[in-house]
Design a protein that fits this description.
By secondary structure, the protein is of the alpha+beta class. It has 2 domains: 36 residues, no CATH class; 57 residues. The protein is 45% helix and 14% strand. Strands 1-2 form a two-stranded antiparallel sheet. Strand 1 and strand 2 form a beta hairpin. The chain is extended and about 65 Å long. The protein starts with 6 loop residues before the first strand and ends with a helix.
Amino acid sequence: VDAPGEISASSESNTDVSRLTVTSVLDPGQRLRVQKTVAHGWSGARSRPAMSDQVEAALAAAAHGGWDGLVAEQREYLDDFWARADVEVHGDEEIQQAVRFA
């Protein structure tokens, strides 16, 4: 949380709710900036402590790499996915497009 002047922030988290409350007084034109990183995990087989550890590790990795790291990781994942998932039909661009978006 970044803002000029005094800032009050509190957070709450339980199984159903995750909330960040920020209070500040701003003059016209001033900005309050909130940057929040959230991770979610679910498993029907793993224990809650194991999932909690995995989510905390994901948050730590995201914080370490920052926004640019997250963008680069997502780009790498998607490039790899589409390199493996794409089907190429040579000779007919219309069929190629139809297959790609089917």
